Predict the structure.
Amino acid sequence: MLQQKADHDNENRFELFLLDEGQQKVEEKAETRVPNTSVFTFNKEDHTLGNLLAQRLLKNPAVMFAAYKVPHPLFATFELRVQTDGTVTPKEAVMETCRLVIQDLSRLNESFQTEWLGKRIVSEGEVERQQREHNNY
Amino acid sequence: MDYDPEGGSINVRFLQADSQRANFIVQNFNLETANALRRTMLAEIPTLAIDVVEVRDNTSVLADEFVCHRLGLVPLSSTGVEELLYARDCDCDGYCDNCSVTLTLNAKCTGSEIMKVYARDLVIESRTPNDELGKPVITDAEGTGSCIVKLRRGQAINMKCIAKKGIAKEHAKWAPSAAIGFEYDPANKLHHLDYWFEEDPEKEWPKDEARINLDGGPPNPDEEFKYDAVPTRFFYDVETVGGIPPDQIVQQGIAVLQVKLAGVLKALSGGTGDAEDFGGAQSPGANGDGYGGMDAGGYTPVGGPAGGYGGASSWGGAAQGGTTPYGATPYGQNW
Ligand SMILES: [Zn+2]
């Protein structure tokens, strides 16, 4: 029997998001020439996380420099360079940033769920009201 | 800057909420998280789509590969996909009921009229976790779904389709949303846009008055330009393909992003070896619950000028798998 993939072009696109054998999600390399500086290599991640972390890190007063780059568009990795003022380590700064974003998202989720339910009830009531008026005619 | 009735905390306001669309505003939010959520919703939410097809018979005018590709793009209900394993994580050889849904498409034209084979003709053959999972999404008034192939007298098609769980980063057929509208600062008060013009951009470009009024009104010409102002209000318009309701797309997007961040935390806190358990895409079943209790640490975001490379250039660019394929797909259309 002939078996077909439903798509034919690139068969290995899972390499964009699945870690290779033994690969770590994040690798930290301390910058020896500059104090309080590290370059974090994120494997199997892209701009979604890179931009989020870099921009959010800049809002931390202890962070003096934060930026990311994707060294090559065909490799699913990015490098995040972080320099702090020494009151926290770059790793601590990144971890704090992750926690803060997770919290923000939880708040967003709470508000979203409440408002969605409210709006659904209002919309459904509106539809019912229109149907009632329609029937009255 | 703007009048804010809700105070300073992150909040959502809905403009429209129905079974197809979630049109809402997020207030007191920040651009980087808003954009990360947009990208996550586009590309990293698990859904179900046909991935492997066994062609038992195909005497239609369309080539096997052509029909298989069309089958892959047929939207299927993803209700309860979290109960399904990724086929690559499953112990089975190839596929089984724990990691796939099997559908068959079997039709033969015997009459003189041309026969259309529709998405509704896909029949679930395997045992599924619930009654919805894997059903073709039908939203048109005729109740047929999209047309997959046409048959003439004597032509037949018989295919066994294996639908698997996946994310749109791998292929756009797994995208949960048909489109996600995303906008901030509709009046361009922040000057993030530089309008092209013949003589006067004010006259030549249309304005969305309603939306500008939702975003604090038009700019005050007497006010000095605030070079360090940042956007805080974001307009989302999430439209579903039909496999997952729009509110679930948003909630799943939030959860997947939280799991991704938790994976980074885990990797950095020295969790060696099993970092892949938290690789984001692999374990979206784990909902983002339980993070809310973490200590805020008295940290207040500083809205300073945000420099650094990789910043502005990456916004509109690379929503992978996001935009291009939709226009070409037959969702909800009859030829
Ligand atoms: Zn299996």
